[in-house]
Amino acid sequence: MNVSSLLPARRAPASPPPEAAPASSPAPKQRDAFFDNAKYLAIVLVAMGHAWEPLRGGSRAASALYMTVYTFHMPAFILISGYFSRNFDLRPDRLKRLITGIAVPYVLFEVAYTFFKRWADDDPSYPISLLDPWYLTWFLIALFVWRLTTPLWRIVRWPVALALGVAALAACSPNIGDDLDLQRVLQFLPFFVVGLHMRPEHFRMIRRREVRRLSVPVVAAALVFAYWAVPRMNPAWFYRRDSAQELGAPWWVGMVMTLALFGCSMVLTVCFLAWVPRRRMWFTVLGAGTLYGYLLHGFLAKGSRFWDWYDHPWLHRPLGEIVVTAVAVAVVTALCTPPVQRMFRFAMEPRMEWAFRPTGRSGGGPSEQGGFAPAVPVGAQAAGRSHGPE
């Protein structure tokens, strides 16, 4: 017999009224390691691609690797950007995050890159122009535009088809000009729209064992094709910053290449995501700092050209190419670390409370920036709910 059952029951103490209950801080959200891993590995591929660019002239193999990586590394980033923009609307606190997390870093780094070019390239007259993004900053202005148009892509009936149509028209329109790098904004748009309409179950399908196995021969075939295409194809198609006419092709080729590159990029992006680890790795924590690695490594990438680091002949040999690749990986990894984030947070994640009226809602966390957005909480993802930036 249970002795406790013979004892008189005790009355539970009355709960304090809601207004008197002590406020408890919410438990911190658990980050999904998959997305942090994907962001880190993608930024590593970006740095490797930039490091390989000067090696292409003397190495067909380096050119093939370069072409393969450029097919999907930015599309993968942009797709993840769209995925974490699903809940974006024109609510005041979200607009505030759009300004402080994307627009302000764009202005600061556009000016910083301009002064860097003036000094490192001995070009003191190089103008400051916020309408003409220089080097890496195009992604920030593109993300700003894409996010502002997010409500539109959520209400149209065939969003991906419409985005592909816009990209195809841009690819055959040489009069768009260079302001705000609109060619890239429009030609990369379909990947952002695809991300907007992806759900957690889509990523679970990508990570299935059958997809991982199939991705191996697909990537191998892509490398072989890229090796064949190196002397036959202009790699500028992968940059998506020019129209077909500007690349010396008829207008209709722009439409064909838009659809062909979209298909190839999506296939290789799926192959890449299929092999991203799901569990926590030593580099998982670096996924929250990929914006820092992206923007900061550009100074070294451009500086290596301005200062003729690639003029050494041994760098263009197989061992030198391996060393260049390892250095690029090490540098971008270091730039994603928490100490670097703390050092440059004033420029990439400014709070700027003085510049805004109180909105009554808190904005997103400090890492909710662009394609480098925070991961979805594991429990929420398993339940299939949508968690965009708040």
Automatic annotation (TrEMBL):
Region annotation Disordered: residue ranges?
Answer: 1-29, 358-390
Keywords, sorted A to Z: Acyltransferase, Membrane, Transferase, Transmembrane, Transmembrane helix
Q: Does the keyword Manganese apply?
A: no
DNA-binding as a keyword of this entry, yes or no, is no
Q: Which Pfam families match?
A: Acyl_transf_3
Q: Where is the composition biased (Low complexity)?
A: 1-13, 369-384
Q: Where are the transmembrane segments?
A: 64-85, 97-116, 128-146, 211-230, 250-275, 282-300, 320-340
Query: What Gene Ontology molecular function terms does this protein carry?
Result: acyltransferase activity, transferring groups other than amino-acyl groups
Boundaries of each Acyltransferase domain copy?
A: 33-334
What is the name listed in the Swiss-Prot or TrEMBL entry for this protein? Acyltransferase family protein
- Tell me what organism the protein belongs to: Streptomyces malaysiensis subsp. samsunensis
